[in-house]
Amino acid sequence: MSLEVVNPVHGKLPITKPLKGVAGKTGLWRTERPVVDNGKCTRCFTCETYCPVNVIRVEPETGVSIDLDYCKGCGVCAEVCPVKAISMVPETG
Ligand code: SF4
Ligand code: SF4
């Protein structure tokens, strides 16, 4: 698997993250999707750091965006969010 070295925590410890899409558009088999309440979000970057497929981006102005083509629906982001700004909801259709 390809890896990229990133440093999302403002100059602290570098970590590795998998590149998204190495196994295709994994969003096709997701059964739940994350929904973000950007009004609650404090822009702490925790979800972006912990997402195992690197599909979350946090922007200070606009908040969290998630690439649902590749999100697996694992729920890690919802679990780690300290203010519970992310909810997992069932996929419909
Ligand atoms: S549900 Fe999993 S794969 Fe999807 S954005 Fe959250 S942590 Fe990433
Ligand atoms: S973990 Fe929660 S509060 Fe932090 S950036 Fe993600 S959604 Fe926002």
UniProtKB/TrEMBL annotation:
Residues of the 4Fe-4S ferredoxin-type domain:
32-61, 62-91
What taxonomic classification does the UniProt entry list for its organism? Answer: Archaea, Thermoproteota, Thermoprotei, Desulfurococcales, Desulfurococcaceae
Highest taxon listed in the record's lineage: Archaea
Origin organism is Thermosphaera aggregans (strain DSM 11486 / M11TL)
Q: Which PROSITE patterns match?
A: 4FE4S_FER_1, 4FE4S_FER_2
Q: Name one Pfam family in it.
A: Fer4_21
Any one GO molecular-function label of the UniProt entry:
metal ion binding
Keywords, A to Z, come to: 4Fe-4S, Electron transport, Iron, Iron-sulfur, Metal-binding, Pyruvate, Repeat, Transport
Needed cofactors, names only, are: [4Fe-4S] cluster
Read off the InterPro entries from this record.
4Fe4S_Fe-S-bd, 4Fe4S_Fe_S_CS, PorD_KorD
What is the designated name of this protein?
A: Pyruvate ferredoxin/flavodoxin oxidoreductase, delta subunit
